[in-house]
Amino acid sequence: MCLQRWSFCNPAATRSEDVNHSWKTYFLRRCHLEMKMTKGRTGAYICKSLRGHTGKVVGLAYLQGNSSHLPDLRNNSPIVCSASTDGTVRAWNIQSVSSEVLWCSPVQSELTEIICDEKREVVITSDCTGLIKTWRSQTGQEMASFSTASPHCALLQYNINNDWFLTVGTSQGSVRTLADSTLTEMSNIMVCDTFKVNTLQVSPDKKWITAGTKDNDDLSPKVIYTESLTSPSEDEDPLCLSVPVTGCQAAVFIPTQPARLAIIHHSQHRRNKALTVFDIGIKKTKYKSEIQVQQVESFPLTLHTRSSEILLEAKSSNCIVVAADEQLLVYSLKGALLSSFKDHTMPISSICVDSFRVVTASQDLSLRVLTWRNDKDHGLTLESQYHLLGGSHTMSRGFTLVACDYSSIVASVEGKDGKDVLKAYFFTS
Question: Residue 172 has what pLDDT?
Answer without folding.
Answer: 95
